[in-house]
Amino acid sequence: MKRLHLIPDRTNLEQSLKFIDEHQCACEYNDFFLASILDDKKKQLEMIETYAKIRSDFSKDTMHGAFLDVTVHSSDAKIREISELRVRQSMEIAKEMGLRGVVFHTNRLYGFRDAVYLNNWKEMNKRFFASICEQYPNQQIFMENMFDEAPDVLCGLAEEMTEYGNFGICLDYAHATISDTPAEEWMKMLAPYVRHMHINDNDLKNDLHAAVGDGQIDWKKFEKEVDAYNIDASILVEVTGGEKQKKSLAYMKEHQILI
C-alpha cells in the first residue's frame, strides 16, 4: 500500500483522526494557510494544541502552506515581500509541529508563455526556495502544479533544485487531468522529482475535488502510470469530510488502486 494521507475534519476531529489512524494514514493539515491564521499566533497555538491532545506524533504528516495570492516571483517588491512572509510563516508552523513537509503552489499565470516571464518565475522561485530549503532542513518543500497548462516549467525548476534534498514536486493528478497536456505526460516528465501527490476525482474539465471513483478519471490507468514511471511518493486523497474519505478509500480498496 502506498503511503496515504487524509485531511483531518476539525468539525469532528476525534472521530476523524480515529478513522485516519485505523486506515494507517498520515494527515495533511489544511487549517493554516489563511492570512487570518498566519497573522494570529495565539490562534495557531490553539489549533496545534487541539491536534496535540489527540495526536502525539506529527513526524509523518504534511500541511498545505499559504497559496492564496502568494507570488514569490512577482516583479513588484511589495507583493514579493508579503508572499515570502507567508511562505516563511507556513514553514514556522511546520517546524513547530515537527511536520514532514509543506505543500506550496506554482501560482503561475495560466497560459502565459512569455519567455521572460517564465524564466523570471523559475529563477526567482529557485532563489527563494533554495534559501527556504537551507533554513528548514528538517522539512520537505513540495511544489504543486496548480492550473499550469504544461509540466515543462515546473520540471525546469525541479531540475535546478536537485542539490536540495528536501525539495520536490507535489503532482496534483486531478489538476493535470484538466490541463492542456495529457496527465501521463505530467507523470512521465515529472516522475524523477515527485515526492508527494494529490488525488481526487473530476469530470476532466473542472477541479471538483470529488470522491475517488465519483468522476471520469481512469484510476486503473493512473495506477499503471505510477508503476510505469516508478513514482515513489506519499499520496493525499484530497477530499474533505468523512463521507468522501470513506467513499474514496472504499473505491480504492474495491478496485485495488494503490492498496
Helix content: 40-55%
| Largest sheet strand order | 1-2-3-4-5-6-7-8
First and last CA, distance = 4 Å
Count of alpha/pi helices = 10
The residue-averaged pLDDT reads 97
Largest sheet: 8 strands, parallel, barrel
Structural class, from helix and strand content?
alpha/beta
Please compute the radius of gyration using only Cα atoms.
18 Å
What is the approximate shape? globular
Unreliable residue runs: none
> Could you tell me the strand content as a percent range?
5-15%
- SSE succession: EHEHHEHEHEHEHHEHEH
β-strand number:
8
Describe this structure in words.
The chain has 259 residues and is an alpha/beta fold. Helices cover 44% and strands 14% of the residues. It contains ten helices and eight strands. The chain has helices at 13-22, 35-38, 41-52, 77-97, 115-135, 152-160, 173-177, 183-190, 219-228, 242-254, and strands at 4-6, 26-29, 62-64, 101-105, 140-144, 167-172, 194-199, 234-237. It has an eight-stranded parallel beta barrel with strand order 1-2-3-4-5-6-7-8, surrounded by five helices. β3 (62-64), α4 (77-97) and β4 (101-105) form a beta-alpha-beta unit. 40% of the residues are buried.
Short description:
With 259 residues, the chain is an alpha/beta fold. Helices cover 44% and strands 14% of the residues.
